[in-house]
Amino acid sequence: QVQLVESGGGLVQAGGSLRLSCAASTRTFSSYAMGWFRQAPGKEREFVAGISWSGDSTDYADSVKGRFTISRDNAKITVYLKMNSLKPEDTAIYYCAGGPKLAIVTRRYNLWGQGTQVTVSS
After folding, report:
1. Euclidean distance between CA atoms 49 and 37, whole angstroms
2. Residues 6+ apart with CB under 8 A from 73
3. For residues 25 and 38, what is the distance between their CA atoms, to the nearest angstrom?
């Protein structure tokens, strides 16, 4: 079973940047599409960004387009989320997830990390 571990979260001022990382435990990671989701207090978990197993295809939520970039390094079995121009409404726990195909809904992913907190102050 592949395990996913997120890191890179923290406290940042509005307008700042963070890069989240999600490290997998085995090289079967390279066969998974990967996604980043987030969940704010009192809200449902929502799609942020996704990338195909090869890295050729990506998708983003409208709220982060132009500010966030997802990428992966299959040699390092890691997926990244670079977040620029952060806003207070980006505050949430961010989760990485793995699944058979790039998708925007949580039920399409069967592997989940434990999450990392991102807090953006105004």
Report:
1. 7
2. 79, 80
3. 22
Torsions phi, psi of 27, nearest 5?
Answer: -75, -5
Of 27, 11, 13, nearest to 86 by C-alpha is: 13
Rounded to whole angstroms, the Cα distance separating 35 from 70 reads 9
pLDDT-based confidence at 39, cuts 50/70/90?
very high
What is the Cα–Cα distance from 113 to 90, expressed in whole angstroms?
19
Mean pLDDT of the chain: 96
Taking phi over 0 as left and psi of -120 to 50 as alpha, with beta for the rest, 66 belongs to: left
> Tokens in use for 91?
């505050």
Residue with the bigger pLDDT between 29 and 89: it is 89
Stated as kind and residue range, the H or E segment containing 50 is strand 46-51
